[in-house]
Structures are given as C-alpha cells and as structure tokens.
C-alpha cells in the first residue's frame, strides 16, 4: 500500500533556500540540453513542472552552451515567481573531450555571473552556486585553476554587494572548505549524495545544524561513475518499492526527503512521465521499519565495496 500525504510537491512541505521558502521538490535542468534541437519539447517539460507546483529550477550557462538558460529565461517571463539557481566555476568547452572546462579564477567567476545575468535576462541571480572542484565526482583543477576558496568567496561577496547575486551556494566542496565558507552566509550546498552513497554525510550534518539547504546531485547514483552506485538497481530498494507500489527511483527520492528536513531535491528528466513520477515522490510517506532497512544500506554497500 502506498502511504501519501497529498498530491504534488506540497506533500514534503517546504524549506528555506536563502530568504525564500520553497517546496522541497524542484527540477534540475541539465538534461534539457539533450533537447537542444527540440525547443518545444523542452518548454513542455518546464511548463509541466510549474503546473505540478515546482518553484525551484537549477541551471547553468554551460548547460547546452546557453540553450538551457535561454529556455528558462522564457519560462521566467511567463512565471516570474519561480526561483532560479545557477552555478559558476566551469565554462562551456564544445571542442574539448568533455563539453565543459574549469573556470575557477575570481575573474572567471565574475564573467560567468555576468553571462548568466545576460542569458537569464535578470538583474539579480536568485542563487549562485560556486562549483568547486575539491571532491569527486567530476572535473578536477590543475595548474592556475587551483584557486583558494577565500579568493573566490571574496569575489562572490563583492558581486552580492553589487546586487548581482541574491544568495551564495557551494557545490562539490570538502567539509573543511564548507567550514571555511560559513561566514559568507552560504544558503545551500550541492554535493553528490544518495541512499547508497553517503560519504558526505558530515557536510549534510553541518548544513542541518546551520540551517543550510542540502541539494544533492546524483540523488539516485551516477551512471557514468562506478563509485556512485545506482540506487534503482539495489535488490532491497526494488523489494521495498514493490511493497509500496512505487518505482525504485521514487523510493530513492522519498528516502532522501525523509532522511533530513533540509534536503531539497532537483531530479532532472526530459520525460513528462518521469517528471510526474519524481514530483509524486514528495507525497510518499515511508513507514519507520522501511526507513530503518533503507538507512542500513549505505553501511552495507560501503563495507562490500571495500572487500
């Protein structure tokens, strides 16, 4: 039997992202770059998300070399009250082996903020996440791209004082760097985190204590990174999901929302059906005995991975 509160994103309640309370289920727009040749389909996904009650949209100028920001700009013209979080610390690199490159220098952060302002058509960015390259998975810094976080935050704070940035977030950071950054008034942290991959639990605990939103990426594991196992493939997840008559992905998302009150989710998809399924995850109430079983999976997985 599926236990639910109410339909849509309201089931999981809300949490503060900066100065604004928003529903805890948002939308990550990175996958929309796959629809670069089908703008109408991309817009349909965004409009459906708004229709389902989503208010928090996560993007970046380097998603699809500006395509994703462009369609979110169009969405905001129709729905000016949505909250848009973007990120800096990388830049488009279409000719490279991967389509993005590090852009960690303070002057590069400023250039990226200006580009996001232009492409999103706003005078102030609601939230800007500083995408550090301190921890796995993803890009790493080399040479002159190894930049101290104090220098980066000083530039971010200058831009906040100038009114270009509303709230400052961090992404892919270590615990030490998060502690170092707290005086800057961090509003959210984005690190990889899922039911089966909880190596950054100490950061989550610190965010909870400091009333900082935790916005995990790879909330269901990472397809391209073997160290970040797919939650939906775990036998116990499949078994418990069947008991609730929900999908394994819904169970993985619902567990995250139950795990800590400060979790905000931004699962991405280009499928309307998957979008509706993701949003419905916010309404699922898990029984305590099932939460206990799921809580134990991370330890079991970590022990197995080190054998």
Summarize the structure.
The protein has 307 residues and is an alpha/beta fold. The chain has eleven helices and eleven strands.
Give me the Rg, rounded: 19 Å
Q: Mind telling me which CATH architecture this is?
A: Alpha-Beta Barrel
Low-pLDDT parts are 1-7, 303-307
Counted up, domains total 1
The top level CATH class name: Alpha Beta
Q: Distance between the terminal alpha carbons, to the nearest Å?
A: 37 Å
Q: How would you name the CATH homologous superfamily?
A: NADP-dependent oxidoreductase domain
The CATH topology name reads: TIM Barrel
The averaged pLDDT comes out at 93
- Fraction in beta strands: 5-15%
Question: What is the H/E string?
Answer: EEEHEHEEEHEHEHEHEHHHHH
If helices are DSSP runs of H or I spanning 4 or more residues, what is the number of helices?
Answer: 11
Strand order of the largest sheet: 3-4-5-8-9-10-11
Largest sheet: 7 strands, parallel
Structural class: alpha/beta
The global form is globular
Total number of β-strand segments?
11
**Percentage of helical residues?**
25-40%
Q: How would you portray this structure in words?
A:
The chain is α/β, with parallel strands linked by helices. Helix 1 (39-51) links the parallel strand 3 and strand 4. 38% of the residues lie in helices and 15% in strands. It has one domain (16-305): NADP-dependent oxidoreductase domain (TIM Barrel), CATH 3.20.20. Mean pLDDT is 93; it is low at 1-7 and 303-307. Helix 1 (39-51) runs parallel beside helix 9 (272-280), helix 3 packs parallel to helix 4 (149-161) and helix 7 (235-244) crosses helix 8 (248-259). The strands form 3 sheets. A 7-stranded parallel sheet has the order 3-4-5-8-9-10-11, covered by helices on one side. Strands 1-2 form a two-stranded antiparallel sheet. A two-stranded antiparallel sheet has the order 6-7. It has helices spanning 39-51, 67-78, 106-120, 149-161, 175-181, 201-209, 235-244, 248-259, 272-280, 288-295, 297-305, and strands at 14-17, 20-23, 27-28, 56-58, 83-88, 90-92, 100-102, 125-131, 165-171, 186-190, 213-214.
């Amino acid at each position: 039997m599926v236990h639910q509160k109410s339909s849509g994103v309201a089931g999981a309640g809300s949490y503060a992202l900066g100065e604004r309370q928003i529903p805890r289920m948002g939308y990550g727009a990175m996958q929309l770059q796959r629809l670069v040749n089908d703008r109408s389909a991309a817009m349909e996904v965004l409009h459906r998300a708004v229709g389902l009650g989503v208010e928090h949209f996560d993007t970046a100028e380097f998603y699809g070399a500006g395509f994703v920001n462009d369609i979110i700009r169009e969405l905001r013209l129709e729905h000016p009250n949505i909250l848009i979080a973007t990120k800096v610390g990388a830049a488009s690199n279409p000719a490279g082996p991967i389509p993005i490159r590090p852009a960690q220098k303070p002057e590069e952060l400023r250039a990226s903020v200006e580009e996001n302002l232009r492409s999103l058509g706003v005078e102030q960015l609601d939230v800007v996440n500083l995408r550090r390259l301190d921890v796995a998975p993803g890009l790493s810094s080399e040479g002159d791209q190894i930049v101290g976080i104090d220098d980066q935050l000083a530039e971010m704070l200058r831009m906040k004082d100038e009114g270009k940035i509303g709230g400052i977030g961090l992404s892919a950071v270590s615990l030490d760097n998060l502690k170092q950054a707290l005086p800057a008034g961090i509003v959210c942290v984005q690190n990889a985190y899922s039911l089966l991959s909880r190596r950054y639990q100490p950061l989550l605990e610190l965010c909870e204590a400091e009333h900082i939103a935790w916005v995990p990426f790879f909330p269901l594991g990472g397809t391209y990174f073997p160290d970040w196992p797919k939650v939906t493939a775990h036998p116990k997840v499949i078994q418990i999901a069947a008991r609730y008559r929900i999908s394994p992905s819904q169970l993985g998302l619902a567990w995250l929302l139950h795990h800590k009150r400060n979790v905000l989710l931004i699962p991405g998809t280009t499928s309307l059906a998957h979008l509706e399924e993701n949003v419905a995850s916010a309404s699922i109430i898990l029984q305590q005995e099932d939460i206990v079983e799921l809580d134990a999976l991370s330890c079991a997985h970590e022990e197995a991975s080190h054998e």
